[in-house]
Amino acid sequence: QVQLVESGGGLVQAGGSLRLSCAASGRTFSTYAMGWFRQAPGKAREFVAAINWSGVTTYYGDSVKGRFTISRDNAKNAVYLQMGSLKPEDTAVYYCAADKSNGVVRGTSAPLYNYWGQGTQVTVSS
Question: Phi/psi class of residue 110: alpha, beta or left (left: φ > 0; alpha: ψ in -120 to 50)?
């Protein structure tokens, strides 16, 4: 079992930046692929970014490519999402997720991920 706790959300003006963090419990964190998803009110959960176990391979949703960067620090059991050039449409609850299968990013679908954090709110004002 892995517990994930997100932090770093808040209110920011359009064009600004935020860095989200996700702290994971357990000794197997370094074997998991990790992802970030977001969900805005009335909308489906949306894939944002994912990273493989080593941090070498990353994937991004089309809406955030070039603006967001996912990274991880296995020594600290943490994954990060650096968000830049934020837009009002980035407003959502952001969730960290872990895929325990084999450390490879298997896809961008939420059901592929086994563990989820409670989410952190990001609000971008215009």
Answer: alpha
Phi and psi for 17 in degrees, rounded to 5?
-130, 155
Q: Which pLDDT tens digit goes with each residue over 15-61?
A: 999 999 999 998 899 999 999 999 999 999 999 999 999 999 999 99
What does DSSP assign to residue 31?
G
Query: Most distant CA pair in the chain: distance in Å?
Result: 41
Tokens of 69: 């960067």
Give the type of residue at 18: L
Burial 84-117 (b: 16+ CB within 10 A, else e): eebeeebbbbbbbbbbbeebebeebebebbebbb
∠ Cα 70 72 73 (to 5°): 155
